[in-house]
Specification:
Oligomer: single chain
Number of strands: 17
Strand order of the largest sheet: 4-12-11-10-7
CATH superfamily of the largest domain: Type I PLP-dependent aspartate aminotransferase-like (Major domain)
Strand content: 15-25%
Number of domains: 2
Distance between the termini: 28 Å
CATH class of the largest domain: Alpha Beta
Structural class: alpha/beta
Bound molecules: pyridoxal-5'-phosphate
Largest sheet: 5 strands, mixed
Length: 420
């Protein structure tokens, strides 16, 4: 496969392509195809951007119809029919049935944009500069979001100090530590040296952090802590929203209502760029245009996003996830974990991680990822030292293909372990 044009002319910053050195042409459902006509099963899912499958036929038809009607393609943040229909659908079919009340801000179309908007807003509303975030967090690569992101490699790229964030140990890091009491102490102790934060940012399942699920108990206590101390709670649902965890929003399992929710990736329905910053109306203190951008609200993405929600409901995607979650867990527990007693499994819904850190071989998860690719599966890594193999198939994958993909993981782990 000739990849020389990329290697010659594309910046060294390119990343995922290094794990998958082929040239892709087509994708359908849970499958990718390359220029040689080779088929791959996709367990990476555009890093969570195509939950409803590649080229989902129902959403595609809506896009084709819109294109053929000469529907408006770019309108800044002007009022348009696709935006109206998306807002109405999101309000009626997603927020209201869950008893949620948010204003919708359309920032620039990526996850990091949604978090930048949230960061500015919590600081403006509270007049405080500091923010709490959890060790292991990933919130994006632009400077504000990067200041909330913990991995050293990403932070090094900033080239300037990343400030005004206090990192709190994530609840799984020190099981004996009461993280809520620790945060309270930071606030109450006049010798803690820590400024009261405007907000606590969190992923309810740290994805890039290695598939670390925050418990319902912790999420509830965190909500209480924020309310009691007049601190805003911001849930970043960029990766694990849109049913990935088993419910549309990942925090639903805790019955809580964050003050701000950020979304991107699969909210665009078809892999199209769209992001939302959902804001408790009481804190929507923006002035017009105070957070601006040319590509706020992509018209085609609005059409696909509405189509995505309709598809999600008509195909009962939340139920599908809950069912397939058990299939994944059972298979990995019974077929993969027994391959080496040092392997661990974490996850929920349709995001799962196989942890290799206890096997003292550098780059082991990367080897498994490369072996999976050689065997016809696209899958990525996550976690500290990239020691986790992360399963994130499209939510609509058939159970047959799901098992086929996991069989490739099993075979690949066997091959890599045998070669040690
Ligand atoms: C939880 C979370 N937040 C934010 C982002 C950043 O999104 P984007 O890459 O679209 O800027 C990501 C990306 O993986 C993410 O997983």
């Amino acid at each position: 496969m000739d990849t020389s044009v990329f290697e010659s002319y594309e910046s060294e910053v390119r990343s995922y392509c290094r794990h998958f050195p082929t040239v892709f042409t087509k994708a359908k459902g849970a499958n990718f195809y390359d220029e040689n006509g080779r088929k791959y099963i996709d367990f990476f899912c555009g890093a969570g951007a195509v939950n409803y499958g590649h080229n989902n036929p129902e959403i595609k038809q809506k896009l084709i119809d819109y294109l053929m009607s000469d529907g408006i393609m770019h309108a800044l943040d002007m009022y348009t029919v696709p935006k109206r229909e998306f807002i109405e659908t999101f309000e009626e079919k997603v927020l209201k049935p869950r008893g949620l009340n948010y204003k919708i801000q359309f920032p620039g179309p990526t996850g990091t944009n949604a978090n930048e908007a949230a960061l500015k807003l919590v600081r403006k509303f509270t007049g405080r500069q500091n923010v709490f975030a959890f060790m292991g967090a990933f919130h994006g690569m632009t400077l504000g979001s990067l200041s909330l992101t913990t991995d050293k490699g990403s932070r090094k790229g900033a080239g300037v100090p990343l400030e005004n964030v206090t990192f709190i140990p994530a609840p799984y890091m020190f099981p004996e530590l009461d993280v809520i009491a620790y945060m309270q102490r930071l606030l109450d102790d006049d010798h803690s040296g820590i400024e009261k934060p405007a907000a606590v940012f969190l992923e309810t399942i740290q994805a890039e952090g290695g598939i670390r699920v925050f418990t319902v108990d912790f999420l509830k206590k965190l909500r209480e802590f924020c309310t009691k101390n007049d601190i805003l709670m911001v849930v970043d649902d960029v990766q694990v929203g849109c049913c990935r965890s088993g419910t549309f929003f990942s925090f639903e399992r805790a019955g809580i209502q964050p003050d701000i929710v950020t979304m991107s990736k699969s909210i665009g329905g078809y892999g199209l760029p769209l992001a939302l910053t959902l804001i408790n109306p009481a804190i929507d203190v923006w002035t017009p245009g105070e957070h601006n951008g040319t590509f706020r609200g992509n018209q085609l993405a609005f059409v696909a996003a509405k189509g995505g929600i309709e598809y999600m409901l008509s195909h009962k995607v939340e139920e599908q996830v809950q069912k397939k979650s058990a299939v994944i867990k059972n298979y990995l527990e019974q077929e993969v974990l027994p391959l080496d007693s040092r392997l661990e499994l974490r996850g929920m819904g349709m995001i799962w991680g196989i942890e290799f850190e206890k096997i003292p071989v550098v780059g082991l998860a990367d080897r498994v990822i490369e072996q999976c690719f050689a065997n016809g599966l696209i899958i990525e890594g996550a976690g500290r030292k990239n020691s986790v193999v992360k399963l994130m198939p499209p939510l609509v994958i058939s159970e047959e293909e799901l098992t086929e993909g996991m069989t490739i993981i099993k075979k690949s782990v066997q091959q890599v372990l045998a070669a040690l």
